[in-house]
Task: inverse folding
């Protein structure tokens, strides 16, 4: 066995969407970052091994203007551009590429962490211990890795690192269970299905509380464990029971009553169950069900959610006499405070994903993957700041929360109730002119507090035609480090990969039609162009220009032309930063 030691600023364990977005943000914020994932690919429950679609605050596109932005939006738009046919393998590759080619980030796949070494702290802000190093084995290379790091992020879903470190975790006997999904396809001619001898048998009567009208995309309610069977300890037994159940349900659909399935073939059945619930780590605050239902706002907001409180029946599929779940909708999105994202007793441990600090009721909403990804990005930024300022995660919350929030906003993250401060933005005092705009959607909206529609406030400039321009005449010469243009990718619609044809029908097949296709940004000084950047076939919402060296300019001109459909494109903001 090879033995290799590695040292990082931030070590993220678990490569689901939370861990991935966390590691990318940490690396982009300047921290030397490791992403350690025990499976061969990234994405967690959204990888091709499990195939869950990624849901969030927009609740399947039914809540307007609520989709998460930031790194997840970048991933979604890449997926829409390169994967219009919704192939899961291409999605896997996009996730891998985001980590594998990210500067400052080292990816360790197939590496399972099994050991955590901690050190006792004598007196440190109420903390008991800190993590010195974690150890794991990379199966493919027969290598034992030891990772030391200033900050560790537990993004394992199961809070494995926290548990091994002696962090305060909570786990009730009753949790939601694990599920195996499947995919079936119409072959255009009758296809038989021979039931394996080990599959269960289900009658129509037994299945009456489980909607199985859509037959092609698997059922989240084939869910086992969480009562008598522990979702971690009994995971192998649960998988076997799930296989017997999935094949039994498919036999019912094919060979039971008529379900219109004569031509359908079982194309794929998962072998790795998706896990919903196990341990959660206690932070300085526990998000509550009431916070979610009342649309809470916090001074230390760093993420948000909006999925309903979606509580599944314990031991779901073995409890067929009860409905599989019950949900409570909330009117507005709710904010998640920073205090939910770090351990209250292990000094350098943060968490991202479904294992954050919530009550069971709040977890029933916050567990969905877009909410996990948004929180992950916030944790990555905070972890990098903890390294930069030599502070604990808790101290970042106490002393640097404004900077953390503004840094996240700078990454196109939406924080409900937290406005862009514009303190160092020379565009805020510029004279702004433009080509014709639609009334009430003029240039003054380009320098607002939010770069999305919030409630009644549209917050966008809308061009009267596909071609146009916007000019910012600055008060004086300014050194500009970064310019950002926030376009419209329609935050009211889902963009996720999905097994479900029904969901996919609500999405654009490719790049959102609202997006502007071509942009040219000119920095001018005394009427002369001193820097120019063109974007042809743009497909992103968040267009960012960071010249190699700051540019001195007294005018910024943005010209745009073409869209992917809309005749009157919107722009949600233009921002400039003097500093890095
Ligand atoms: C069947 C099912 C349906 C669901 N439906 C939806 C839905 O429709 N939409 C939605 O958004 N969410 C849905 N959820 C919930 C959601 O999938 C999870 O809550 C979410 O995946 C949690 O994200 P995460 O990043 O915390 O964990 P995960 O996605 O589980 O990622 C954690 C990763 O860490 C890795 N890991 C674990 N331990 C270690 C270790 N010791 N060392 C290294 N790596 C490790 C795991 O292999 C995994 O890849 C569903 C869940 C299930 C099971």
Result:
């Amino acid at each position: 066995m090879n033995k290799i030691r590695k040292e990082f600023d931030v070590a993220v364990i678990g490569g689901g969407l939370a861990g991935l977005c966390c590691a990318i943000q940490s690396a982009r914020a300047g921290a030397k970052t490791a992403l350690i994932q025990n499976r061969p690919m990234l994405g967690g429950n959204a990888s091709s091994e499990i195939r869950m679609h990624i849901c969030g605050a927009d609740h399947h596109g039914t809540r307007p203007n609520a989709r998460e932005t930031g790194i997840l939006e970048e991933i979604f738009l890449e997926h829409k551009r390169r994967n219009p046919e919704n192939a899961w393998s291409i999605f896997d590759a996009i996730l891998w590429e985001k980590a594998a080619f990210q500067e400052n980030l080292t990816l360790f796949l197939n590496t399972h962490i099994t050991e955590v070494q901690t050190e006792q702290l004598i007196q440190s802000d109420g903390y008991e211990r800190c993590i010195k190093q974690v150890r794991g084995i990379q199966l493919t290379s027969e290598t034992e890795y030891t990772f030391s790091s200033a900050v560790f992020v537990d993004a394992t879903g199961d809070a494995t690192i926290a548990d091994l470190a002696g962090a305060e975790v909570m786990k009730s006997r009753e949790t939601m269970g694990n599920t195996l999904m499947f995919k079936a396809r119409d072959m255009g001619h009758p296809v038989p299905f021979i039931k394996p001898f080990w599959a269960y048998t289900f009658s129509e009567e037994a299945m009456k509380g489980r909607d199985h009208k859509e037959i092609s995309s698997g059922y989240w309610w084939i869910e086992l464990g969480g009562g008598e069977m522990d979702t971690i300890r009994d995971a192998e037994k649960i998988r076997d029971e799930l296989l017997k159940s999935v094949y039994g349900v498919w036999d019912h659909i094919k060979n039971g009553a008529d379900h219109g399935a004569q031509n359908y073939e079982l194309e794929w059945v998962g072998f790795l169950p998706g896990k919903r619930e196990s341990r959660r780590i206690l932070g300085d605050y526990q998000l509550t069900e009431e916070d979610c239902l009342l649309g809470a706002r916090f001074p230390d907001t760093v993420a948000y959610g909006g999925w309903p409180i979606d509580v599944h029946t314990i031991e779901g599929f073995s409890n067929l006499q009860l409905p599989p779940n019950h949900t409570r909708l909330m009117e507005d999105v709710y904010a998640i405070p920073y205090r939910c994202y770090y351990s209250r007793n292990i000094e350098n441990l943060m968490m991202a994903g479904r294992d954050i600090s919530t009550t069971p009721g709040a977890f029933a909403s916050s567990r969905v993957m877009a909410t996990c990804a948004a929180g992950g990005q916030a944790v990555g930024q905070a972890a990098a700041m903890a390294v930069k300022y030599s502070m604990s995660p808790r101290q970042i919350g106490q002393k640097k929360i404004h900077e953390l929030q503004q840094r996240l906003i700078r990454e196109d993250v939406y924080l409900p109730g937290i406005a862009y401060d514009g303190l160092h933005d020379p565009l805020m005092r510029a004279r702004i002119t433009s080509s014709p705009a639609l009334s009430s959607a003029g240039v003054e909206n380009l320098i607002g507090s939010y770069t999305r529609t919030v409630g009644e406030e549209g917050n966008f400039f809308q061009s009267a035609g596909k071609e146009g321009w916007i000019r910012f005449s600055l008060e004086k010469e300014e050194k500009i480090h970064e310019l950002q243009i926030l376009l419209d990718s329609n935050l009211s619609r889902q963009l996720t990969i999905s097994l479900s044809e029904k969901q996919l029908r609500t999405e654009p097949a490719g790049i959102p039609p609202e997006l502007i296709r071509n942009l040219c940004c000119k920095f001018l000084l005394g009427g002369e162009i001193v820097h120019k950047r063109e974007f042809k076939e743009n497909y992103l919402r968040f267009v960012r220009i960071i010249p190699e060296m700051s540019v001195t300019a007294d005018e910024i001109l943005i010209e745009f032309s073409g869209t992917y459909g809309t005749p009157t494109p919107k722009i949600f903001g233009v921002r400039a930063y003097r500093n890095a």
